[in-house]
């Protein structure tokens, strides 16, 4: 991880706000319980749409608030988890969560676009930057019509799920088209000699944008398609006024590429829950104590 200055922390705050707003845009409901916020989605049980997060701007998190939030989520049939960006809180925060009976369940790397241009010091690890040009046989375009979005969905499913979908129904394309028309998302298709083989998706919440998906068809990994997708995604996000561009939980195979293209490791998103001896969730009471954060 990097050392943080004021600009770095402001970037992380924007990313934190982006993730929160994106959950709300996905129809998750939010309720504040003192120093924490509880996100619940009525149909989707995904972790990032059903979680507890520190309330914006709080300097501490109370045990009583966490206990009430955990109990409330259990009553709604959700497994409660506390999610937060580790770089925005001191190490003591995690230690106190452990003392309260919580355990780290999972973590995801967060990378932000922060290229370094020009020379670097001899003992400094240089950051990457976008190359500015692509192999002439590779093209990347933003899908905007129903036909283009259907093609995007087809290659995404083939690459992400390793399944070939010969038919894409109009009702499957409609949500993508609505997201494009509202300015919420961009869908990018990468082609090799006009054959679509890669797909990327960006969510836009200016001044921030998240690169959510970068995938390529089997046997086409590392052939330059991923580079074209990421470069196009960055330029497109910048054109929409997004100065903060990030990705959460990039695949291990793409980490070197993100580094080379100007992304740096900024933080990790941590998920804490109550765990029993077998490693499963345990609905026991949180131990006494107060969680302090900056």
Number of helical segments with 4 or more residues: 7
Structural class: alpha+beta
Q: What is the averaged pLDDT score? A: 89
Q: Indicate the overall shape.
A: globular
Write down the domain tally.
2
Number of strands: 13
Task: Assign a percent range to the helix content.
Answer: 25-40%
Q: Estimate what percentage of residues fall within beta strands.
A: 25-35%
Roughly how many Å is the radius of gyration?
21 Å
Strand order, biggest sheet?
5-12-6-11-10-9-8-7
Separation of termini? 18 Å
Biggest pleated sheet = 8 strands, mixed
- Elements, N to C (H/E): HEEEEHEHEEHHEEEHEHEE
Brief descriptors of the model:
294 residues, alpha+beta, Aminopeptidase, 8-stranded mixed β-sheet, 3-stranded antiparallel β-sheet, 7 helices
How would you sum up this structure, described in words?
The chain is an alpha+beta fold and 294 residues long. It folds into 2 domains: 6-109 and 269-292, no CATH class; 138-261, Aminopeptidase. The protein is 31% helix and 29% strand. It has 7 helices and 13 strands. The chain has helices at 6-25, 63-75, 91-99, 146-160, 170-181, 225-239, 255-260; strands at residues 29-33, 36-40, 51-54, 60-61, 82-85, 102-113, 138-143, 185-192, 195-205, 208-216, 244-248, 263-274, 291-292. The chain has an 8-stranded mixed beta sheet with strand order 5-12-6-11-10-9-8-7, with helices on both faces. Strands 1-2-3 form a 3-stranded antiparallel beta sheet. β8 and β9 form a beta hairpin. α4 (146-160) crosses α5. It is globular. The two termini are 18 Å apart. The mean pLDDT is 89.
């Amino acid at each position: 991880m990097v050392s943080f200055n004021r600009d770095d922390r402001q970037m992380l705050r924007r990313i934190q706000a982006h993730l929160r707003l994106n959950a709300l845009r996905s129809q998750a409901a939010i309720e504040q319980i003192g120093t924490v916020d509880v996100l619940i989605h009525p149909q989707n049980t995904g972790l990032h749409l059903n979680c507890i997060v520190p309330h914006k701007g709080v300097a501490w998190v109370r045990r009583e608030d966490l206990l009430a939030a955990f109990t409330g989520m259990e009553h709604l049939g959700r497994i409660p988890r506390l999610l937060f960006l580790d770089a925005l809180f001191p190490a003591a925060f995690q230690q106190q969560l452990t003392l309260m009976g919580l355990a780290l369940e999972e973590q995801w790397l967060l990378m932000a676009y922060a290229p370094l241009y020009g020379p670097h010091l001899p003992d400094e690890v240089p950051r990457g930057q976008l190359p500015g040009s692509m192999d002439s046989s590779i093209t990347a375009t933003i899908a905007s019509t129903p036909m283009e979005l259907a093609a995007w969905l087809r290659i995404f499913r083939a690459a992400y799920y390793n399944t070939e979908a010969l038919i894409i129904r109009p009702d499957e394309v409609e949500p993508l088209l609505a997201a494009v028309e509202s300015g919420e998302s961009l869908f990018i298709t990468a082609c090799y000699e006009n054959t679509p083989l890669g797909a990327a998706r960006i969510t836009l919440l200016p001044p921030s944008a998240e690169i959510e998906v970068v995938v390529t068809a089997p046997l086409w990994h590392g052939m330059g398609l991923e580079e074209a997708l990421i470069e196009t995604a960055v330029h497109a996000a910048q054109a929409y006024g997004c100065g903060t561009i990030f990705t959460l939980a990039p695949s291990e195979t793409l980490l070197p590429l993100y580094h080379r293209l100007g992304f740096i490791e900024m933080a990790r998103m941590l998920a804490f829950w109550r765990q029993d001896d077998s490693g499963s969730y345990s609905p026991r009471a949180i131990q006494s104590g107060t969680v302090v954060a900056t």
